[in-house]
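In this notation, each integer encodes one residue's backbone shape. One such record reads:

___
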Amino acid sequence: MNQTLIIEGTKDTPRVILNASEDTFEISGRSFPLNAKGFYAPVLEWLDKYSENPNKKTEFAFKLEYFNTPSSKSITDILKILKIMKDNGHEVTVWWHYEEDDVDILDLGHVFSRTIGIPFEFKEY
């Protein structure tokens, strides 16, 4: 699979870069779209296809400053796909970036990690 998905960020939606050929998997910015399910549908579709034949190693970075509850459901769905890939023997690392002193985003990362059962790497910026 060499198709790339890039969604430019806005004040309400995150920037998404899914590029298997360059090993770039990142969601960054703020995520509170009016329709989170609709916004994340192409992301989940892309990841579903990618998970059928993923790279030897997948490093997925979340660099979110803020996200709402509907977005957290979609983030959970993304993490479930990554967990299945890991369970199928693929090397998967989830990087959870958080702003210095932003304990809320840090705590949410720990909650996602425990809930999904996939260890995260935490990175302060």
User: Anything to note?
Assistant: Helices lie at 36-52, 69-87, 103-116. Residues 69-87 form the longest helix (19 residues). The mean pLDDT is 96.
